Amino acid sequence: MNSLAVNSLNTDAHKAGERVGLRSDKIVINGGKPLIGRIKVRGAKNLATKAMVAALLAESPSTLRDVPDISDVGVVTGMLEAYGVSVTKTAEGELTFDPSNVLAAHFSKIDALAGSSRIPILFCGPLLHRLGEALIPDLGGCRIGDRPIDFHLDALRAFGAVVDKSYEGIRLTAPNGLVGADIELPYPSVGATEQVLLTAVLAKGVTELKNAAIEPEIMDLIAILQKMGAIINVEPNRVIFIEGVEKLEGYTHRALFDRNEAASWASAALATEGDIFVEGAMQAELMNFLNIFRKVGGAFDIHEDGIRFYHPGGELTPVVVETDVHPGFMTDWQQPLIVALTKAHGVSVVHETVYENRFGFTDALIEMGADIVVHKDGLESVTRRVPRRRLEQAAVITGPTPLHGADIRVPDLRGGFSHLIAALTAEGQSTISNVGIISRGYEHFIDKLDALGADFVYEG
Ligand code: EPZ
C-alpha cells in the first residue's frame, strides 16, 4: 500500500530558493517487487537550467517548454528573479522569461540560492554583458569531486574579464567589455563549454573554442542560441567558432529529454526484473547506453513516443564499462547501472574517468550485500583525461549477490537514485533518508514509483 506524501516534494520545486535536500524526508521501501508501468521524462535538468540562463542574454522574452518540475529549476528561477527577470509559468511544463528589467541582485539573495547548484557560475558571461559585473558565491552541486571552476575563470579572463576572489565568492568585472578569444580547454568540460558559449555570443569579434564538450545538451543549447540570433559553427574535432553579434532576441524552445533520467529508469527496470515504458526517451541520445544495457542482458523496444526497457528473463551478464565524455558512456549512467550489475553472473568493472569521487554511493550497496571493490588507482597507469588529479578509477562488481534492506542516507543525486533502485531490488525493508536531493534531478519521482507499483511509504 503506498502512502504518498501529502506535500509532494516537487510542488516546492518552483518555490524560489527552496533548498530541497536539507530536509529530513525519508522513504520506507519494501523491496523485491518488479517495477512495471509507464512513466514520462521531460526536459533535461542539464539543458533546461542552462537555457534559462541564456534567456538573460535576450532583449525580449523567451519561452521554454518541457521544463521539468525539479528543484534545480527552482534554484535558477530564484536567481533569475533576483536579477529582475520575471519568470512565469505559462502552461504545464512551460516557463516564460522576461529579461527587460535586469538589475543587480543583492548578494545575500544569490548566496542563499547558490549553495545547492553549480548553475550560478554560468551567470558570469550574461551578467557581465548586461550589468558589467557579476558576483558569484561558492557553488553547490553533488559532492562527487572537488568540482573546480578553473577552466571557467581562465576562459572568462581570456574574454577580458577581471576576476577578484573574496571570502564571499568571486567578483567579476569587464572594464573594457568582453572581446572574442581563442580558448583551448584542458578537458572537454560541459560547464566550461557552456560558459564560453554564453559569453562569446555577445562578445566583440570571433571566439574559437578548442577541445569543447559536444554533449547533446550542449548541442541543444547551441540550437537555442542560434534561434536567438547567435552565429555558432560546430567544426569537426571538438572545435566551435562563435561570431559575436550586437544583440540577441528571445527564443521559444522545447527542451531535449533527460537522458540521465531515462537511463536511470532503464536500470531500475533491469535491477527489479521489471518492464518500464519511458515516454519521451529517444534512441539517438542513448546509443551507447542501449548497447551496454543489451550486453548486460536487458531488452528494449524503440517506439516513436519513447522506449520500453525490460528484463527479458535469464541471467544478467557482467560487462566492462569506461565512462567518458560524449559520445562515450556517460558518467551519470554508471551509478544506476551498477545496481543491476550486482545481479550479473560474474565480475563487472566500471572505470570512472570523469570525476574523482563518484563511487561513494557503493558503500550503501556493500552494506546491503553487494560485493564491490573500488580501486583508487585505476586499472592502468596512463595519465588520465582530467589533468592534475588521480581519479578514483574503478569499481569491480562481483555477482550475483542478493541485496537485503538497510537504512541509507542519500549522498548525491545519481548515487541517491541508485540507492532507491537498490532498495526496490533488495529483499526486505529499507529506509532511505535525505531523499529530497533526488528531486533536484528526478521530476515527481515519488509519483513515478507509485505508478510503477513500488511498495513504499514516503514521509515528507
Ligand atoms: C555537467 O557537470 C553535469 N552537470 C554533470 O551532471 C555531468 O556529470 C557532467 O557535466 C559531465 O557530463 C550539469 O550540467 C549541471 P564538467 P560539469 O565540467 O559541467 C573537471 C548530474 O548528476 N573540471 O564536464 O560540472 C571536473 O572536476 C551532474 O546531473 C575542472 O577540472 O562537468 C570533472 O572532473 C553530475 N575544472 C571534469 O572536469 C573546471 O573548471 C568534468 O566536469 C571544470 C571541470
Explain what this protein looks like in three dimensions:
With 460 residues, this protein is an alpha+beta fold. The N terminus is likely disordered. The protein has 2 domains: 242 residues, Alpha-beta prism (UDP-n-acetylglucosamine1-carboxyvinyl-transferase, Chain); 210 residues, Alpha-beta prism (UDP-n-acetylglucosamine1-carboxyvinyl-transferase, Chain). The protein binds ligand EPZ. Ligand EPZ binds next to helix 1, helix 5, helix 6 and helix 12.
Quick recap:
The protein is of the alpha+beta class. The chain has helices at about 45-55, 70-80, 105-115, 125-130, 150-160, 190-200, 215-230, 260-270, 285-295, 335-340, 360-365, 415-425, 445-450; strands spanning about 25-30, 35-40, 60-65, 85-90, 95-100, 135, 160-165, 170-175, 180-185, 205-210, 230-235, 240-245, 250-255, 275-280, 300-305, 305-310, 320, 345-350, 370-375, 395-400, 405-410, 430-435, 455-460. It folds into two domains: about 5-40 and about 255-460, UDP-n-acetylglucosamine1-carboxyvinyl-transferase, Chain; about 45-255, Enolpyruvate transferase domain (UDP-n-acetylglucosamine1-carboxyvinyl-transferase, Chain), CATH 3.65.10.
SSE order and pairing:
Blueprint: E1 26-30, E2 36-40, H1 45-54, E3 62-65, H2 71-82, E4 86-91, E5 94-98, H3 107-114, H4 124-131, E6 133-137, H5 150-158, E7 162-166, E8 169-173, E9 182-184, H6 190-200, E10 206-210, H7 216-228, E11 231-235, E12 239-243, E13 252-254, H8 259-271, E14 275-279, H9 287-296, E15 299-303, E16 306-310, E17 320-322, H10 334-341, E18 346-351, H11 362-367, E19 371-375, E20 394-399, E21 407-409, H12 413-425, E22 429-433, H13 445-451, E23 455-459
Parallel strand pairs: 2-14, 3-13, 9-10, 17-18, 21-22
Antiparallel strand pairs: 1-22, 1-23, 3-5, 4-5, 6-8, 7-8, 10-12, 11-12, 14-16, 15-16, 18-20, 19-20
Ligand EPZ binds at residues 45-46, 118, 142, 145, 147-152, 187, 189-192, 213, 215, 260, 331-332, 354-355, 386, 413-414, 441.
